[in-house]
User: Fold these one by one.
Assistant:
Number 1:
Amino acid sequence: MKIGRLPALVRTTTFRLALLHASIFILFSASLLAYLYYETAGHLGRQAEAELNAEFGELSAAYRGGGIDRLKQAVTERREARGKFFYLLQDGSGQKIEGDFDVLPAPAPLGQVVNVEFAYDARTTQGEPIRRSAEGRISRLSEGGVLMVAYDVGDLGEMNRRITEVVWRSAAVGFVLSLIGGVVISRSAAQRAEQLAKTTEGVMGGDLTRRAPVFGSGDEFDRLSEQLNAMLAKLERLVISSRSAGDSIAHDLRSPLTRLRNRLEAGLRA
């Protein structure tokens, strides 16, 4: 039985209004959530990328200005400052000169810069070992050495994950609210239409005194009800006039027909 009801439900105005309202609300919510995600998680990612570019640019400038010795000094100073970046400087043979790691997480490029993502071992504030994620950039120096600058993405990734969860939960809540709002709005319209249908059914059943309800809201249903009521009032007057005319004609014909009947009966008796 449910399968038979489905096509009829889909064809109703109530269903279409609910679907339209839900679609508009979902589209608006999706656009808003996408914008919020872009301005939060996306902004954090772009900011981290910009800081990496700036850090890499400063170290490249130090290398161009003083060679490998000046670059080593710059890396040492940054390591001692305990900033957010990790470093690794190697010579042409792959030996570590300065840095936070012993080996590169990926093969060094040949005459180009590559972006890498890798995991590394760290320790918590309590001294417990932990595996964390990082992203960085590796560049081959003109003298044959290699420079890597990286930053930890654990906190950034956790923030992105939380923002993503909030966005998806908000999307789910928005979807439910859109359906509820669509049903409520369409239900109100369906009830007004049902009242008009009951009025016409009563008139078709012979009750010419039935009138469509007017709630005074001034909406299109009220205007339709007023026009329908005016039509029904005019129809009622026409029917009453027709009945009156019929009664008058019947009354006028009653006396001549009675006399004619009496004469016919008298002739038959004679």
Number 2:
Amino acid sequence: MSGMADPIAGCAPFVRLVHDFQAGQIFHLPARRINDHALLYIHRGEGTLQTDGRDQAVGPGTVLVVPPDREHAFSLKELSGVNLLNVHYDPAQRADSTAVHWHQDARRPRPPGAPGPLPADQVHVLTVHPPAAYVAAFRRLARTWPAAAGSDLLVQRASMLELLAVVLRRFGSGGSLPAPDPHLERARRHLDDANGPVRLEDVAAVAHLGRSAFAAAFTRHYGLAPMAYRRRSRIERAKADLQWGGMTVKAAARRAGFANVQHFTRVFSRLVGEPPAAFAARTRSAE
């Protein structure tokens, strides 16, 4: 409607906190409410989210979209240590935005601010794919925080908008996605983590589905066929390694599971639009 403000057009986010949170093998967040917006990305760890009186399984590659004043709690475990990539923000800067106190005080609640670009009706659980794309966007944002004013603040805002765009794409036309199927999620993580050759029938077996049924279900849920997803995931991982990890093309190709640099360069160039060496030179010089 013409009389209503567009929350996307009016979004000029102020970043209140960026935190690469490292915990032990078990981490429990007790029930809480926050007074701003948060994106809580599970980098390592599996467990259960409790919100709105229901439990939901969560794991690596999951982002919790937490709006203000919505109660939530979760428990995670991971042998190598739980890792969360957390961002708290206001959709538009407020007088108290710089005061990083995000717990909602029931006695003196922070009033709601401007609406943000993401749905705020409940705590939403989304699966981002490929995970490396979200992690790379978070790392870019982390490099800008904290920012005092001027051009640094603009760069930080642009990085936050990029991260929000990654999440917003998973909401499609504005509605929430269904809860991720645990069998498909297990298969997706298998595709992300596998280093050597992967056969479709083996991944389908991880999801306890036949080959054709698995391919159809995976494509419907993630928007890419399984092997196309795997190629994209490997290249996104390589992009992050080239830009932020300082790796050579050969090292990035090997870590992404490619047998030789020539094949890696062909796939990278087709999906990214430029060879990996050119991508690395361009993105590193822009930092």
Number 3:
Amino acid sequence: MDLEPRALRSFLAVADVLHFGRAAETMRVAQPALSQQIRRLERDLGVELFVRTSRSVALTPAGRVLRDRARALLAQGEKDAEEVVRVARGEQGRLDVGFVSSALPLGPVRLVQQFRDEHPLVQVHLTEGWTAHLLERLLRGDLDLAIVRDPDPMDGVRLTPFHSERYVAAVPSGHRLAGRSSVRGPELAGDPFVFFPPGAGALATARNLAPVVAGGVVPEVVQEASSWTTLLHLVAAGIGVTVAPVSALLGAPDEVVTLELEGDHEPSTLAWASRADDTRPVLRRFMDAV
């Protein structure tokens, strides 16, 4: 049985004043029409809601129960309608956002928090990971959006670049080249390298090492790690050298020396990644905000 909001509002108008004439004025309908609505509601429910006499109107026990329920039903209906409108406007919902840790110094995660503050009804959940893994989770539907670095092209993924930066070399302070301000990439090809595992992303790996392999020699990676923070501490300890996006060197240990890389090299690019077929309003609103 469906209790129509209009019928419930008519019932409450009478229940509040216990007078059909005054209730009809409040509802701006003719009294006979209001009486018919109440009779129809009683017929649908199979109960009497009012005791009517020529001099008074009173609620029956069933009417008193419906009075309380009707207020709750109408309030919930209005709440649901408002939620539908907010979702359609992108003002409510949930976003699962992945990010690479190397993006943190550049501020996109702060933009996520700003969006949270401005849209408190949107739940935003953050997940850290490597670019390749974030893209896999994005396509599976585990993530709605990801901040990725030098992503491999993938069908079904929309990329929106937002930052490019140069690569630099990072060597320990005791390194033979530490006293210089710049270096040619191939000069480091014979040094032990510390770097991410290949599974972190093929394009990212290729771009990072491109300045070094330009001379035809592929460096030997002697130690892998899962974050730039760890890699730079390995460099500081003298375990090896590496090539990194310049922002990754922000906050590096004092024992790490940054050297500019001579020559022209492909920059490192950060991008927002989302599913190409995801057109939800909440995602559009987020992308407009960031």
